[in-house]
Amino acid sequence: MNILEKIVSVKQKEVSEKKFLYPIKRLENSSFFERKTFSLVQSIKRNHIGIVAEFKRKSPSKGMINDTALIEKVVIDYESAGVSGISILTDKHFFSGENENLKKSRSIISIPILRKDFIIDEYQVIESKSIGADVILLIAGILSKNQIKNFSRLAKSIDLEVIIEIHNEFEIDKITENLDIVGINNRDLQTFVVDYNSCLELYSKIPNSYVKIAESGINNVNQILKLRKQGFKGFLIGEYFMKEKNPGKICKYFMKSLSKKLNEIN
After folding, report:
1. Does 177 participate in catalysis according to the annotation?
2. For this structure, is 98 an active site residue?
3. Predicted confidence (pLDDT) per residue in 90-122, tens digit
């Protein structure tokens, strides 16, 4: 059993327990459920830099990345650095994430939040809205085209945007309606190995009607300039910021350096 299969197996048990403890009716009574969501698509289009900064304590491949950073401080610092959106890991078992981190963040920032998790059930789509998410991630590698279609339709009905994440050419066939963003992940989710060329190779094979974002392994300004030249509008960066004691400070410095380079080019 590879890492991804283990994650899905644990997630199935977790979701069935949650359905019993927190029925959908209870989720729909959440104070976040009626709020108007923020659009990540519009935020990326408005912001010429397009960085989505991630809060991630741990990963299966790297182990503990940062167990001391305070979520409240990091997300406020990310927002003041000028990012387009913030991605928050909510998977507990493998990433030391928690729904509470997203709820806390939603109450103190005013930019889009992506709930980063392994969504395998419609229940989690409803749950995402109930904890304050604006965007959900659907991973093509663990879902059928039919599941992607159903989950994304449900997401749109409750005002959530949807990112489909692909890792290879075969998964492009799973792109369907009701998706807003296509994320190309440089990390193979079965081995967790990063191949920096994945984004560049797959970019032109994806319809231009979607906002395209690059994910994983991005750790310098020149990489982003290369990806922007290809046509990418957004860039998800987590580990590069989170491995530092003060993720927000590094993010601010990175954003300034990138902005300076972009101004020189233009």
Report:
1. no
2. no
3. 999 999 999 999 999 999 999 999 999 999 999
